[in-house]
Amino acid sequence: MALSILIINPNSTSSMTDGLKPLVHSLGFSSTKYAYFTAPTGPESINTEDDAYESLNHCLPSLKPLLEKHDAFLIACYSEHPLVREIKTYTHAPVTGIFEASVTASLQLIPRHTTFGIVSTGKVWEKTLTDAVHNLLGTSTTSSRFAGVETT
């Protein structure tokens, strides 16, 4: 049986979800089944931590019935989105977000004594993403592997 991954767009903009489909399909994992979820209501874009928590409240009731139908879950929002943590409380299946995946992939791919950083839009994300990286790495305010966040 094919592995089923639910890709979750926690904002209510279906065109963003639709934009993911050709990108995921181009990966060429033909033995994996992908399903997509867009928040039924709520923020059209996640621009702050408050938006992320609001989207959690709009998504979770609709997601709960879907959890036993899929083998893994990917939250398609570049933040420390609370859905990652919340969905883990309802399933034993793997759950990650694109933020967590990018940080862990960076750590695996860069040489041991080099650093990675994050480039984003919006000044609000500098502190938010910096704090999120430290939360993920279990560090307080500094890490020998994390260079920081720069925004445009």
Sheet with the most strands, sense and barrel status: 4 strands, parallel
CA-based gyration radius: 16 Å
What is the helix content?
25-40%
What is the strand arrangement across the widest sheet?
Answer: 2-1-3-4
Termini, distance in Å?
Answer: 44 Å
Which word captures the global form? globular
- Give the DSSP E fraction (strand runs of 2 or more residues): 15-25%
Unreliable parts: none
Average predicted local confidence, pLDDT: 95
**Helix/strand class:** alpha/beta
Number of helices: 5
The count of strands amounts to 6
One letter per element, helices H and strands E, the order comes to EHEHEHEHEHE
Topology:
Blueprint: E1 3-9, H1 14-25, E2 32-38, H2 49-63, E3 72-75, H3 82-88, E4 95-97, H4 98-109, E5 116-120, H5 124-137, E6 146-151
Parallel strand pairs: 1-2, 1-3, 3-4, 5-6
Helix pairs in contact: 2-3
Your description of this structure?
This protein has 152 residues and is of the alpha/beta class. It contains five helices and six strands; from the N terminus they run βαβαβαβαβαβ. The strands form two sheets. The protein has a four-stranded parallel sheet with strand order 2-1-3-4, with helices on both faces. The chain has a two-stranded parallel sheet with strand order 5-6. β5 (116-120), α5 (124-137) and β6 (146-151) form a beta-alpha-beta unit. It is globular, with a radius of gyration of 16 Å. The model has no long low-confidence stretch (mean pLDDT 95).
